[in-house]
Structure formats: structure tokens, C-alpha cells
Amino acid sequence: MLFNRVLITGASGLLGQSLVRRMSQNREYDVLATARDDSPRFEAESCGYAPLDVTQPDEVEAIFQNFTPSVVINCAAMSDVAACDEHRSEAWAVNARAVKRLAKHCRDTGARLVQVSSDFVFNGKRGPYDEDARPDPVNYYGRTKLAGENAVREAGRSNWAIVRTVLLYGTGRDLSRSNVVLWMIDQLSKGEPLHIVDDQHRTPTHVDDLAIGIECVVHHEETGIYHLSGPDLVSIYELAGTVAEVFGLDGSLIEPVSSDFFEDDVERPPRTGFIIDKAKTKLDYDPRSLEEGLRDVQASLQGFSSS
Q: Domains in the chain, please, with CATH?
């Protein structure tokens, strides 16, 4: 049997963990998980682990020489929108320059590159978006992600895929950052009032659905751009209300506000979300509904608390 030697960067994050769990269980793949951490987090998984900072050229070159991947899935990213605006050089190094370097190594070695990107490459004026929509980011995070996409396109090979997603949520072990759903659960569980925007709309995506879609892209050797998200377009306020309902928390603590209520001065696209017809047709992509996804989060959290 021929194995796909799969290098996963950013493997300690929410998406990276889900991909490692799925792909390391499939005998079709020989998986190397990488992240900035010195010690592995994947003792229970059938995969290798190596520390890797994608912004360091020598480390990237060594990984390609030692592991010789046939597929690279780049989950490494700086995704905190406000932090990207405040720390622009760091954001560019991770989201743009490092992607260009990975794309070059993939071009030189013949490896396929799957780059994970974001709905924030769009301005949010005409969402939901399909794959043919024209990017027009409104903040620095979106500009760095679009620059990463362009680096992949311009690397001189057609053997690439760009997978964009929207408002990822789910559970993982020892995450350095939470996600919006876990934050909402935590705040409401403490009885803390929440001011939640009602003028921003997204199609929230369960992390395991995204991982399934990416694995399909790899397995079927798909190329080009794919939009992978949840099926339900909701405002962030509606998302919070659904979280409260599913988890039996006090929805009266949630107060709708406009984006102007917050003072971080970073513009966010008002209405993104994705049209996922291409993924449904070509990948048999069948993401869970928002309520189904939240109930799966609930089950996972109960599993963590009992383990």
C-alpha cells in the first residue's frame, strides 16, 4: 500500500487536533503532527510528533528533509483578529510569509499543499459567499490570510487546495485559546451578562466537520478553492441564544448590541457565511446543523469532565 505522508502544522490547535485524531486512525496516512510545543500532545494517537515553528526557515527545511511529506495541511495561523491588528509583523510572519515558504518547499519537493483560510478574506457586504466571490478583506487579519492564499496560488504549481472556513467551534485538549462557543458557555455558566452583536452573521462550523472535509480534499486529491462551513446562517446573538437553549443556561443574560458597542476599533465583516454547494456535490460534505454541533460539544465536554 502507498501511504500519503501527511505533515500537519499547527497541530495543537482546535483544527489540528481534530485532523490528527481522524487521519492518524486511517492506515492510508502516515501522519506527522507539528506545533511550536516542545513536548508532544498526541501520545494516544498513532502518529509522529515534532516541534515546528513555521516562521523559522531552518526548522521548515529540516522537516521537509527528514519527513519528506507528500501532503502538507497548514493549520498554523494567528487568528485573533484584534491581536493581528496590534501585532502586525507577527501576524504577517505566520499568516503570509510562512505560507509562502511552505508553498515553495511543496513546489520544490512535489508535495501537495492544503492551506486553511478564512471567511475574513471577504468584506461581508454580500454574504454568504461561494468560491467564485471576489475577496476584499476589511481588516489586517483578513489581508494576511488573503496574502497567504495568493502565495499558494503564485508558487508555480497547480497541486494545491485552499479551504476556507467560518467561525470554528468545538472541543480539544489543553487549547491555548478558547473559541466563541466555549466562551459563551463559560460566561453564561458563571451567570455573567453577555453583550453580543446582532449585526454580524456567520455560518458557524463544527471543527470535526471541517476536518472531515479536509480529509476528503486530501483523499480525492482535490485542487482549487473549497468553502467548508456549517449550513446555518445566524447572527452572533442568535448563536448565543442557541447555546443557552442547548446547554440549559439563562438566555436572559444575553443582550443584543451593535458592533459599535465595542471599542477595539477593528472592523469586522458584517455578513459572511458560505455557500457550500460545491463541497456537497464534489466531496459529499454533509455538515451537522448548529444545534447538532452544539449537542456534540455538550457530549464532548461531559466526556472530558468524566475522564
A: 4-169+204-230 (3.40.50.720)
Q: Does 237 qualify as catalytic in the annotation?
A: no
Return d(Cα 211, Cα 72) in angstroms, integer: 14
pLDDT band (50, 70, 90) for residue 1 = very low
Whole-prediction pTM value? 0.96
Q: Which of 29, 129, 141, 226 is catalytic?
A: 141
Q: Cα angle vertex 179, ends 219, 11, to 5°?
A: 40
4-9 and 29-35 beta bridge pairing = parallel
CB proximity list for 105: less than 8 A, separation 6 or greater: 60, 61, 64, 72, 111
At 265 the pLDDT is: 82
Residue matched to cell numbers 520544490 = 108
| Count of Cβ atoms closer than 10 Å to residue 285 Cβ | 22
Task: Sort strands 234-235 and 201-202 into parallel, antiparallel or unpaired.
Answer: antiparallel
Q: Model confidence over 75-127: pLDDT tens digits?
A: 999 999 999 999 999 999 999 999 999 999 999 999 999 999 999 999 999 99
* Alpha-carbon gap, residue 225 to 145, rounded angstroms: 14
When the pLDDT of each residue in the chain is averaged and rounded to a whole number, the result is 95
